[in-house]
Write a structure and sequence with these properties.
With 226 residues, the chain is of the alpha+beta class. The chain has two domains: 3-132, Luciferase, domain 3; 139-225, ANL, C-terminal domain (GMP Synthetase, Chain A, domain 3, 2-Layer Sandwich), CATH 3.30.300. The protein is built from five helices and 14 strands. Strands 4, 5, 6, 7, 8 and 9 form a six-stranded antiparallel β-sheet that branches.
Length: 226
C-alpha cells in the first residue's frame, strides 16, 4: 500500500486498524503482515512485516544464498503448510519456481521463488522492493523501476506513475497521470533520486489502463515506445 493513499484511508477512518498484507497466490494467499502503528510521511515505505504462523519467508541472493543483513535486496522466497503443489499442467514452470530443497539444505522441504524483491529494515521487518522482472541495468547501475515509480507517486498533484526502459534508445521513460508540469516533476525527483534514476523523458497520459490482474498494464505503454 502506498503511503499517500493509506493516509487518505486513515483520515477517513480514524478508528480503524490497518494491516499491510503480502503474499502470492502460490502460498494461498498471504504470508506476511504488518500492523500500521502511525500515519507515515511521504517518502516512507510501509513494511510487509513478518511471517504468519505456519509460513517461512526469507530472502535469497542471485547465488542462491540466504540474505540476513539489513538493506541488501534479494528475491523473496516462501514455504510453509499452505504452499501450492505447483502449476496445473505446467511442469516446466513448476520446476523453475518451486524448489524441492529446504532453505536449511537438508532436502526435506520445498519453497517458492516469488519473483518479488525485498529487503530487511533495521528492525528486522521485511520491505517489498518491486518485481525482479522490472529490475534493469542502466548506465552501469542496477535499477528497480518500481523504486522510481514509488518516488513519483510521492509528488503532490501526480496521481500515478509508470517507468520503462526504452531499450532502442537506452533511455528511461516515465508516464504519469495528474495535473502537474513535467518541469515540476523533474525538479522534485532530483530531490528524491540519484541522477541515473531520473527519467530522460516524461509523458503525460489521460489513461492508466489495468491488465487482467488489476495492475497497471505495462505492455500497453511498451507499445507506445515502439
Amino acid at each position: 500500500m502506498p503511503v499517500k493513499q493509506l493516509r487518505i484511508w486513515q483520515a477517513a477512518l480514524p478508528c480503524a486498524e490497518f494491516i499491510n498484507l503480502y503474499g502470492p497466490t502460490e502460498i494461498t494467499c498471504n504470508c506476511t503482515y504488518y500492523r500500521v502503528k502511525e500515519m507515515l510521511p511521504d517518502g516512507e515505505k510501509i513494511p510487509i512485516g513478518r511471517a504468519f504462523p505456519g509460513r517461512i519467508v526469507f530472502l535469497m541472493d542471485e547465488c542462491g544464498k540466504e540474505i540476513a543483513s539489513p538493506g541488501k535486496i534479494g528475491e523473496i522466497c516462501v514455504s510453509g503448510e499452505s504452499l501450492s503443489e505447483g502449476y496445473y499442467h505446467n511442469p516446466e514452470e513448476t520446476k523453475e519456481r518451486f524448489i524441492s530443497c529446504s532453505k536449511n539444505g537438508d532436502g526435506s522441504g520445498r519453497y517458492y521463488k516469488t519473483g518479488d524483491l525485498g529487503f530487511y529494515g533495521k528492525c528486522g521487518e521485511l520491505y517489498f522492493s518491486g518485481r525482479k522482472d522490472f529490475q534493469i541495468k542502466h548506465m552501469g547501475h542496477r535499477i528497480e523501476l518500481e523504486e522510481i515509480e514509488h518516488a513519483m507517486e510521492q509528488i503532490g498533484g501526480l496521481e500515478r506513475g509508470l517507468c520503462l526502459l526504452d531499450e532502442k534508445r537506452n533511455k528511461l521513460v516515465a508516464f504519469y497521470l495528474g495535473d502537474i508540469s513535467k518541469e515540476q516533476i523533474q525538479e522534485m525527483m532530483k530531490e528524491k533520486l540519484p541522477a541515473y534514476m531520473i527519467p530522460h523523458k516524461l509523458v503525460k497520459t489521460d489513461l492508466m489502463p489495468l491488465n487482467k490482474n488489476g495492475k497497471t498494464d505495462r505492455e500497453y505503454f511498451r507499445q507506445k515506445l515502439r
